[in-house]
Amino acid sequence: MALTDVAIRNAKPGVKPYKLGDSLGMYLLVQPTGGKLWRLKYRVDGREKKLGIGRYPEVSLADARKSRDEAREQIAVGKDPSREKQLNKTRAKLAADNMLIVVEK
Fold first, then answer.
1. CA distance 8 to 97
2. How far apart are CA 56 and CA 91, in angstroms?
3. Is 8 helix (H, G, I), strand (E, B) or coil?
4. Host domain of residue 50
C-alpha cells in the first residue's frame, strides 16, 4: 500500500530504525533520532543497491516519487542511479573548480 503524507507525519521514532514502504522499491527510513530518509532499493547486475533520495520534509512524497521514477528510467536503460549521482556530483565540483580558476585570473 502506498504511503500518505499523514502516515509519514505520524511516524514516530522507535528504538530501532524501521521502514515504511511506498511502492516500486521506495521506502521511508525512520531513524531513532527522528530523522526520516527516503531510500530506493533496486538491483543492478544482480546486486542489491540502495539510493538515498533525501530527507523528509525537505523532499516531499511527490518529489521522492518523481526521483524514484527517474532512477527507474535509468535502470531500464542499463545505468546505475547511484553511480550517475556520484558522477553528477563530481562534474559539478569540477565545473565549480574551473569557474574559480577563471575568476581568479
1. 39
2. 26
3. helix
4. 5-104
CB atoms within 10 A of CB 35: 12
* 8 Å CB contact between 70 and 82: no
d(CA 94, CA 7): 41
Average confidence (pLDDT) per 10 residues, the chain, 105 residues: 92 96 96 97 94 96 97 95 94 81 56
How much is the pTM? 0.85
CATH of the domain at 97: 3.30.160.390
Of residues 34, 38, 74, the one with CA closest to residue 54: 38
Whole-number pLDDT of residue 34: 95
Whether 32 contacts 15, CB under 8 Å: yes
Domain total of the chain: 1
pLDDT (0 to 100) of residue 105: 53
